[in-house]
Structures are given as structure tokens and as C-alpha cells.
């Protein structure tokens, strides 16, 4: 016997007992109707998880074949079913967050990393992305959105990482380079709008489904891409460590970063949820940890807001404004308009109107594309409200997701409000990086080390 929930489509196999609730939407048994469903149809509902998928995995014994993952998968709104024999995964891990049984998980790499920490010939460095520090506390019954940066650093030190550095430094580098790139494109009447390139799921999506947009993608590497290169090339020298003995780990909210780092200077990605497991398995009492500071490579608060939708745009516009006017951009100069599926960020620079857009989730992006030429710059993030809703974050109760994401967002914005170092170009470590190594944004060295070339993947997938 099979029953379908009339509210959310969940399929229950077997008899329904009194007091049973739909595991997805909490509807009672009277909202279920009996149905005849072929086995193959049920199988087809699950997202396909290739054993070689670098980002996620399924624990078969836990899967109840409910299809929630397919409903979540953004590819269901695009081309996935045009070729069901070759399904496409953009590695975002959003399906993990809606799987009711915990069957879908990030591909676990944390044990490999912990083994390397015990290898005395290696120096293991971890760089931490901003969104992690407003989600990690959820795993230890702290308040949703609580900013736990200092406890997180202590936990990483207790796990044995030699250096704990902040990926907001890489975010600052990205904003410096991206703003200069946008300025050049506008000046030279080059390909516009420019799209951000920090989100590997979006970049993969564009490379598969919209390869005509590749010239529009910023050539900037992502913050972890830039920072891993910096650590390998320069930090290693400053610390007198052979670069072959350095292991670089990115701690991120993002499963897609596990795909992104193939062929990069970053060796491993572990997610927020993997760190929570490592903390528990090593009997670290997270709630009662003392506070610690990053060892080095701090970022500005512009780097912190990278973790939420609109943060990359705000940070890059701060740098562009400085380039064009020599002054600091204050938030009241940006006019933010809420549209039904995106936000406009507009400002005037030297009498020129700079019209930009901020969008998250690919179905919203698809709606924006027909009007893309109205804008000079578009920030695109795959996940709900940006990286705070990443597939590697601590899963949230489905009914509370919006509220929790709002609290995570607030947790990051509060750091930016009263920050002493609000602008990437005022960050002393960024000033030193340009003075010592790169000279200026878009210099020969910057282009060589901080930028990349995007390639179409259309023929590999479609
Ligand atoms: S959401 Fe989880 S339980 Fe449901 S079909 Fe997908 S993997 Fe299985
Ligand atoms: S929005 Fe952030 S967490 Fe989500 S796929 Fe993109 S980079 Fe990863």
C-alpha cells in the first residue's frame, strides 16, 4: 500500500498508523490518499547521486524514497530531465537540507584532514569562510545565527590545525580585483553585464546551460581560490615552510567548493556540518570553549558579509566607488529596491548611474536573464539567501528555515555595522599584499595568480 500526502506530495509506503505525521510537512493521516505508484516512478523521484560526485553522498539505508531531494534540486526546473540518463549535479547540496532522514550528506573529507594533522611532516592550515560562524552554533544548541567565530577558532586549534586564517582576506582580494575589472569593462565598453564568479554552483550552471554568458563572468577566482594561491605562494615563504609540505583546507558552508578545488591550490574542503561532527567525535565541549583569534590574514567586514546574498555586491561597490571618487561609499548612498525575485542595488558615481542586481537560486536567475542588459553588474548565488543557506551548513528544521536564515544574515550584518575595518582597501593585510606581491589590482601578477579562465561544459553534459 502506498499513500501520498496531498499537501506536499510525500509518498509513504505501508499502512498509516494513528498519530502518523508527514515527515516533510507535518500533515496528519487525513491528508494522505491511497495511490498506485510503480516502483520505477518512485526511484525516478530521487536525485541521482553519482558515486564519483565530489560534493555529496547518499546513505542508502536511510533513504525512504520520498522524492524531497528531487523537488529541491534546481535541475528539476531546468534541463535535468532532457537527458535523464545523464543527470547533472551542480554540487550545491541543497538536497541535503531538505532530506528528512539525513540520508544525503556532504562527501566526508574531515577524517582525511584529521589524519594529515597527525602527519608530523605536514603543516595543515585551515581558512574559514564567513557563513560558517553563524551556523556552527546550531549544532551545539546555541541560538540560531549566533556569531561563534572565536569559539570556532579554538575548536580548530584543539583539533590540531597549525594555522587558522580567515577567508575574508580572500574575499577582500576578490572585491579589489572584481571592482577593477568592472571599472575596466565599463571604460572599454567591454562585455556587460559582468556576473560574479564566487559561487561554483552558479559558474558550473552557466558553463553547462548558458555558455554564451561565459564572457560575462568575472575572471576573478573565488575567495578560497585566491587565498589558497596566496597561502601556497607567499604565506609558505613568510613562514619558511616548503610549499609541498603545506596542506590547505577550506572550511566552508558549501559542498560545491569540493568540486571547485579540483585542480586548484586548495587541498581539501570540509563543511560546517563536517566540522560539527569532528568536534563531537573528539569530545570537544564547544559551548564552553574559550575565545581565540585568527593567526593571520584577517579580512575587513566587507569580507564577512560575503556570506549573505548581496554581500559581494556591497563589497565590490565599495571598492569601485573608491576607485572612481577616492572616497568611502556609505550605505545610505546605495538605493536598494526589493523586486519580486531579485534586488536592485543602485548608486550614482560622478553623475553616472550604476544599476546592478542581486539574485539567488537558479530559478530566479532564469527569470532575471531576459532583462539582464538593464544592469552593469549582477551578483548570483545558488543557495537560499546566499552561502548562509549552503548545503554544507547545519541542516535547519524545514518549517523554520526562513527565520533561521534571517538570523544568520543578521549575525553577519551586525559585524559590518560597527566595524573598524569596513573597506577592503583599508585592510592592512590587503595593503601589504598589494605592496609586496601584486602591486595593484589587474597587474600582470594579479592576473596570473588571482584570475582564471572559464570554459563551457555544455558538450560534456548536454
Ligand atoms: S530526500 Fe532523502 S530520503 Fe528522500 S528520496 Fe532523497 S535521499 Fe531519499
Ligand atoms: S551560494 Fe555559497 S554555499 Fe551555495 S553553492 Fe554558491 S558558494 Fe556554495
What would your notes on this structure say?
The chain is an alpha/beta fold and 462 residues long. Among the domains are: 1-37, Rubrerythrin, domain 2 (Single Sheet); 175-223 and 298-461, Fe-only Hydrogenase (Larger Subunit), Chain L, domain 3. It has helices at 39-45, 68-72, 94-98, 110-117, 149-159, 168-187, 200-209, 223-238, 256-260, 272-281, 301-304, 311-325, 362-368, 401-417, 428-438, 444-450, 458-461, and strands spanning 2-5, 11-13, 32-35, 56-58, 104-106, 123-128, 163-166, 194-195, 246-252, 268-271, 335-338, 343-349, 352-360, 377-381. The strands form four sheets. A five-stranded mixed β-sheet has the order 8-14-13-12-11, with helices on both faces. A four-stranded parallel β-sheet has the order 7-6-9-10, with helices on both faces. The protein has a three-stranded antiparallel β-sheet with strand order 2-1-3, with no helix packed on it. The protein binds iron/sulfur cluster (2 copies). One iron/sulfur cluster binds next to helix 7.
Q: Topology of this protein?
A:
Elements: E1 2-5, E2 11-13, E3 32-35, H1 39-45, E4 56-58, H2 68-72, H3 94-98, E5 104-106, H4 110-117, E6 123-128, H5 149-159, E7 163-166, H6 168-187, E8 194-195, H7 200-209, H8 223-238, E9 246-252, H9 256-260, E10 268-271, H10 272-281, H11 301-304, H12 311-325, E11 335-338, E12 343-349, E13 352-360, H13 362-368, E14 377-381, H14 401-417, H15 428-438, H16 444-450, H17 458-461
Parallel strand pairs: 6-7, 6-9, 8-14, 9-10, 13-14
Antiparallel strand pairs: 1-2, 1-3, 4-5, 11-12, 12-13
Helix pairs in contact: 6-8, 6-12
The structure holds iron/sulfur cluster (2 copies).
